[in-house]
Design goal:
0% strand; 156 residues; single chain; mainly alpha
């Protein structure tokens, strides 16, 4: 069986894959929004047995990151993708093979971009003054840290 990640790899469609657009949309049955964890689980199933899994993941994530813009949707998707990575590191040890960390081991320019986008997301959510949005954002940030993600994602 071919996974969606393998399709994205063969078609060079990583931005669409990580954003969950087009054929890579995995619908959350409760909310109808993109359920990023489904795509990440497919990624893990495909990459786990490969010798070059980390290199493929780094390249795929870098390509995706280059497509992320300063919009609330892109920033939210980035936070979700980063959160999925840290959550699944505990279930799929290959994701942290030899101490690898998808965020902390990116190029300096990519770290700065991640931080800039996370600052933008936090400021946008605060400015909108939507209690439900703010609570969701705070829960996602707490979960990211609890799962071993960077405590200083806004200042990598």
């Amino acid at each position: 069986m071919t996974t969606n990640f393998e399709i994205a790899l063969n078609k060079n469609q990583f931005p669409a894959y990580f954003k969950g657009s087009d054929q890579y949309f995995a619908r959350d049955p409760d909310w109808g929004t993109q359920l990023h964890i489904i795509n990440w689980q497919g990624l893990c199933i495909y990459l786990e047995p490969l010798e070059t899994s980390i290199e493929i993941l780094k390249d795929a994530f870098s390509e995706y990151l280059n497509s992320v813009e300063l919009t609330k949707k892109d920033a939210s998707d980035l936070l979700e993708n980063i959160g999925c990575y840290y959550y699944l590191r505990n279930k799929y040890p290959f994701l942290s093979k030899d101490g690898f960390d998808l965020v902390c081991d990116t190029a300096e320019s990519e770290k700065q971009k991640i931080s800039r986008i996370m600052v933008f997301l936090g400021e946008t959510i605060e400015a909108n003054n939507d209690a439900q949005d703010l609570e969701l954002y705070n829960r996602r940030m707490r979960k990211l840290i609890d799962d071993g993600g960077p405590t200083n994602i806004e200042n990598l």
